[in-house]
Amino acid sequence: MRGMPEYLLGLDQGSTHSKAVLVDRKGRVVRAASFPLKTSRPRPGWVEHDPRAILNSQLNAANRLIRSVGRKNTIAAVGIANQRSTIILWDKKTGRPLTAAISWQDLRAAELIRALSGHRDLIRSKTGLMLNAHYAAPKLRWILVRSKGLRARAERGGVLAGTVNTYLIWHLTKGEVHATDPANAARTLLMNLHDLSWDGELLSLFDIPREILPGIRPCAADYGTARLGGRTIPIRASIGDQQSGLLGMGAVTAGEAVVNYGTGGFFLVNTGPQAVFVPGLLASLAWTTSNEKSYATEGTVNSVGTIFEWLVSQGFLKSVSEIDRVVKSSRERVTLVPALAGLGAPHWKSVARTAILGITPSTSHADVVRAAVEGVAFLVRDIVEALRSGGRVRIKRLEASGGGSRIQSLVQAQADLTGLTIQRTETTEATARGAALLAGVGHGWWSSPSSVPKPRSGKIFRARMSEAELNERYAVWEKTIEAVKTLGPE
After folding, report:
1. What is the pLDDT of residue 4?
2. pTM value?
3. Domain 6-238, what fold?
4. Who's near 389: CB < 8 A, 6+ residues apart?
């Protein structure tokens, strides 16, 4: 093997696709593959995947890359990033799924959230998160209550549970490893953010049997050996997709931030070795190694790609790729609040629904499309405002990534409405790249996440809006968002 190329394999299992990349020793993505994943919406507010489809789509993407490099080239290690808070239960002996994979977008546990509302402060102090139906614990509780005989089976030791990373690791290692990482464990509402362990009080609160949960290991650690494409490859990293994107875009020191536009939108700023609690936002693990912890403050926009796909499905657009052209033809300003899966940070109104305000007889499809683009940018601006008012987090550098970052009008609107200069990363696969780089840390290629190679940056977007116009438009937005928040039962 001496003299032949060595690669790291990064997996990114997301809500709409399973992706894989090969990364070389210079941190460059040299090859990529992607397979689609079907989403099912059996009832209003319910969002599911077939766990077998999740596994097969990820295997297809990985195997395609492995075959492409041939047997002579070495794949040193694999890292896994995944959609967070999506929960799966499976049979401990056979690996057969026992339920659908309940998506992070799913809201079926909203009634339970209302019943537990008196524990919001406790949950916030222990987990850094808000009590919200998007996280895994309420979904897991819902499944155990509603699925006949499943709890008794779980208490007898016949059931395993985990987020998508855990499910993939278990299958890739042929059932040898049932483990997760702190970045994913944190999204369950069951892990204590301070000691990085399952919290007995939270387990009792949600009535979750500890024995079904995976062990928690550092993000860069030994997760066993994957059987992929006829090879055995050590798994050396597991991490949530947004934290992986933070690493993949090079935001490895305090104050460096990313906005990632995918199915949802995620704004994360690295806060270094200390968790920072900002009202309305989330305190999260960024990543851990055997001797290092890094935290992030995060805000989530629940509907980005989903609102654009909805516009396509309703005939406002022929395809997402024409958004920039259509936005240029808009002549009238209306306001759209994207909330197909409720409102995330800093509003936390899961029952909110998408609203369009200001329609006149002359309002066109193009006006609604522009309003959707600006609505996403305004929701990210709300997150930035929460950071600014908190006063403890300063944004030194902001990068944009994800499929939505290819929409020029979106990133420009984001720069205009936040007043921040935004640099768009050149790689469209920052999440998978981050997983691969973290596997390189776990495998010893680099000493820590802060020493991994930086990505190449692309176009720079600078704010072009006057302060007076910005203030005027944001005042209208604030009135609109408050009106939308009054429409639900919470």
Report:
1. 60
2. 0.89
3. Nucleotidyltransferase; domain 5 (3.30.420)
4. 279
